[in-house]
Every structure is written in C-alpha cells, then in structure tokens.
Design a protein that fits this description.
31% of the residues lie in helices and 33% in strands. The protein is an alpha+beta fold. The chain is elongated. It starts with a strand and ends in a 9-residue tail after the last helix.
Length: 534
C-alpha cells in the first residue's frame, strides 16, 4: 500500500537562503525512498489543504508568512513582486528579510519537534528523498560551554553539551538554521541551543580553537571573558575565578506608574548590583588585577531566595504579572483619589512583616511620606474611684494624643505633618470609626463626652434603649483594649460611666454604686462575654 507522509523540506531559495516548505511525500510498496508528490499551499479550497490536521494547517499558515507574495507586500514599495525581487539589496535581505524568515522557521521547527513531524534536507529540484535525508529533531536543547586557556597565549574553544555528550562543531558538517534563537544541524540531527547568538558559534564551525593576540589580552579579559563568565557555563585554566557569597537585600519601592496609579517595584541587590526578578542574568562577575595576575570574582543569583520574597509579597496581598511591578489585589482602580493613600497605608500596616521577610521599603513620590508603623495605643489606668483610658497614636518614636488628630478626622484630612518634614497618612478606617465620637455636640459645648455620645445605645434616663450591632467606641478599640476594659473587677462590679473627660489624651469615667448601674453595665458586657475566652 502506498504511504503518504506530511513532511517539511529544508531547501534553498534563490534569494532568501534556505527555508522550509510543506509537502506531501509518497512511497511506493517495496521502495526504500520517498518521492515529493505535492507542495502544500495556504489555500483552503485545495484538496491537499483539506487533508491536513489542525497542527499541519498551522504550519502551512506560518510558512505562508515568508512566501514571495507576502514578503513583497510586507517589505516592498515596488509595483510587482518580480520587480521587488529583481531590485532587492543584499543588505536588506541580510538585516531585515532573513531575520524575519528565521523567526518563523524557529516557530515551525518547534511545532515539528513537539508533534513529531518529519523533516528532511535536500537540494531544490531533487525529488527523491532517501532515509538518510531525514533529520532527527532533539527534544531537549543543548547548552553552550566556553573553555578558556591562558598560558603562553590566551585561547578558547566553544562546544555544546547535550545530555552527557559534548558536541564539537568543527568535527561534523554543522549548519546554523536560525541565529536567534539558535537551531543547528549537526550530522543528521537538529539541535535547539540555549541562550546564545548564532554569530558566536560561526568561528567554531571550521575551527577548534581561537587564539587572542597578546596586545588584546587585557581588553579581552575585562570585556569578553568577564561577560562570558557571567552569561555562560565556562571552564577556565591559567587564571583565577573565585566564587563568593554576596550580600543580599531586597527593596520594595512605591512610585506612581502607568495611568498615574501607585505601584510597588521589587528590586534585588547583590553587593552593589541591582536587578529585577525578570532579569535573565544568572550570575555577577567583577574583573580585577592582583599582583599582575588577572582575577575574577563571581557570585551566583539566589533564585530560591528571590522566589521566597515574591511569595511573601503575595501572602501580604500584592499581585504581579512579571514579579517586578506589584499592586494591591482588589484595592486599586476603585477610587483614584485614595489609591495612593491605600498604597501608603499598606506599607504602614505591613512594614514590620516586610522587614521580617528581609524586604526594605522606600518611595519615589513627590511628597516625603511616612512609611513606618502607625499604631493606636490604648492604656487603662485604674485610680481610687475611677479609671482612665489613654489613647495615643505612635508614629515610630513620635507619639501624639489621639485627640490631636480630631481636626483632621472631622475635616477628612488624611495627611498629617510630622516633625522632621514627613507626612503621615492617617488610616482610612479611623475616619469612619471615630468621627461620630469626635463630632459629639456635647463635646463641642463642654469639652467632655457624655455616655450617650460614646455608647449611643446605652439606656438613658427616659428609658429608651437603642442597641446597634457593635458600639461605636468599642469597635474603634483593639481587642486587647476591650478585653482589658471588661476584665476590670471594679468596672465589672460597679462602674458605669456617667461622664467622659479628655485630659492629655485620656478619657475618664467616674463610679456609681447603684444596683441599677450594675444591671446596665452587665447588659452591654454580657453579649461580648464569649470573647473573653476567644
């Protein structure tokens, strides 16, 4: 039975160099060779096209990108394709058209590798394809390795490592198919090559070793060899390469990004070298001379450390597509006026967690914003017949009474000037939790708060009682402050506040010993009794 096979032929074009063409090959029973039966065009109406699988159609579509007609449309202002081909310059082909073709060739070869599509090499016009003409496409890429030797002269070689095999390019009929990224034919095998430009391979297709003239040695050490030690796997002999452990630190920088929205930029520092997570650098190299000898100091990137820091930022609520630019998850793009304040308060809130993960913070904003911890501290001081609740706000070492912020909270002013020129951004929740307490009409008239202004659900003399789900004042306190308040024996037994006063940031309540006072006190404490054991 006749065998029909879809295959890719690697063959020369009179202008563009070697390209891939999609064909159907036929093999008659008893024959040991194939014959080229039909070239496949990107035409859905043809019978050949209708016989293709979806992936084969994808290949034909890609190949059409460098058809004569399509190249004419893309790169020429001539009237006809023939006129374009008759006048196209070699430099245009080399610098523009050929790189465009090779990008498509690389993509087609990837598909052929992943889907086991046959690839053969032949000269144009030869319609017979033997078994030896077919190429094997290696699934796993090869890695370049440079070997430098310095003695009486400086020389180096370049080979490829594939698995456990070392491939010497000059020993076989090597041909570079695409230069960037690199695909290479060596014998009857096609290799994909990692992280190198094909131009670096060219000299070694016919030479084993390159020798550097002595007058260029120092320049070669300080430039080419240093960069090679940084970017590639390298073997050295005759000079010193010291592998060291670098000092590492990370920084999260707040700045304004696209659309005038705040973003966080994550930077990694290795000694004095700064990079981003998406950098392709694998290591850092410094070149020096010591006692007339050339010395390289090399240290590796710690990818595990970098990944741990990215995970830590994700756990705190930051998200990124490239692990370089981060933003607050589900926080931005809701109110542009407050996005910057939310971004600053995130650092205020989690600055210690960031520091604990080894991430420093700073900003590149127009104003000198304060990025340290902002804490509302509550302290209870028991006296002979009353107790004080002291409310203070701590900005690192600077402490102010909470009441000093009354004007800002009532006026909705988020920015608060600190000594030294820094500007603190007051947390947004303070403006909802504390505004009603600070805006008490009684407070304005007498300088004190009545119980009805702090606990508006407290049973008043008229006997009415209105109890919201959570009292305004208690909701503004920390849980520790609330539990401390509830656990006071004197308060639990007899204290019902009848008047709250503020003195140096404190609020005080006096005692009453009436049974009615105890009943009212227990009435509001009882619903929160389970929290004492939480």
């Amino acid at each position: 039975m006749r065998e029909i096979r879809f295959a890719l032929g690697y063959m020369p074009h009179r202008l563009w160099g070697k390209i891939l063409q999609a064909q159907f090959l036929e093999k008659e029973p008893g024959k040991d060779f194939f014959v080229s039966a039909e070239y496949i065009q990107n035409d859905e109406s043809t019978l050949a096209y209708k016989r293709l699988t979806p992936m084969q159609r994808e290949i034909v579509k890609l190949i059409y990108a460098y058809s004569d007609r399509n190249l004419f449309r893309r790169f020429s202002r001539r009237r006809t394709a023939k006129e374009f081909q008759d006048h196209v310059e070699d430099e245009t082909i080399r610098k523009i058209i050929r790189p465009y073709i090779e990008k498509t060739l690389y993509r087609v070869l990837e598909i052929a590798r992943d889907h086991r599509i046959s690839l053969f090499v032949r000269e144009k016009g030869d319609g017979i394809i033997f078994a030896d003409d077919f190429m094997r496409i290696e699934k796993y890429p090869a890695d370049p390795v440079f070997s430098f030797h310095y003695g009486d002269e400086l020389s180096y070689t370049l080979s490829l490592i594939h698995g456990e095999n070392r491939l010497m390019l000059h020993l076989g009929s090597a041909e570079i198919v695409t230069y960037s990224p690199v695909t290479l034919m060596l014998g009857n095998t096609l290799y994909f090559v990692n992280d190198i430009d094909g131009k670096k391979l060219l000299p070694f297709l016919d030479k084993e070793r390159l020798i550097i003239p002595r007058e260029f040695e120092k320049k070669y050490f300080s430039t080419f060899i240093r960069n090679t030690l940084r970017d590639y796997n390298t073997l050295t002999e005759g000079f010193s390469v010291r592998d060291l452990q670098p000092d590492k630190r990370a920084e999260l920088i707040l700045e304004m990004g696209m659309g005038n929205l705040p973003v966080y930029i994550l930077q990694f520092h290795y000694n004095n070298q700064m990079i981003y997570a998406d950098s392709r650098l694998k290591r850092f190299v410094k070149f020096t001379e010591e006692g007339g000898n050339y010395v390289f100091k090399r240290y590796q990137r710690d990818f595990d450390w970098e990944e741990r820091l990215v995970v830590a930022l994700n756990e705190l609520g930051l998200r990124s597509r490239d692990r370089r630019i981060f933003h607050l998850n589900k926080e931005f793009n809701q109110d542009k006026g407050n996005d910057l304040f939310r971004a600053i308060n995130f650092i205020n809130k989690d600055e210690r967690a960031l520091a604990g993960s080894g991430i420093g913070v700073r900003h590149r904003l127009q104003k000198n914003y304060f990025l340290g911890k902002i804490e509302l501290e509550l302290e209870s001081r028991e006296r002979e017949d009353w107790f004080d609740i002291l409310a203070r706000v701590r900005f690192n070492d600077h402490v102010v009474p909470f009441l000093a912020l009354r004007h800002h909270i009532l006026k909705g002013k988020r920015e608060y000037a600190l000594p030294g020129g820094e500007i603190a951004v007051l947390p947004e929740e303070w403006f909802t939790r504390h505004r009603s307490m600070l805006n008490s009409e009684k407070r304005k008239e007498t300088g004190s708060w009545s119980t009805s202004s702090i606990f508006p659900w407290w049973r008043n003399p008229s006997g009415s009682s209105t109890r919201p789900p959570f009292p305004v004042f208690i909701s503004s306190m920390s849980w520790n402050g609330f539990l401390l308040l509830c656990s006071r024996r004197a308060f639990m037994q007899s204290c019902v506040p009848t008047r709250w006063k503020d003195t140096d940031g404190s609020v005080s309540c006096s005692r009453t010993d009436s049974e009615d006072a105890w009943q009212m006190t227990w009435g509001w404490v009882k619903p929160f009794r389970p929290l004492l054991f939480w």
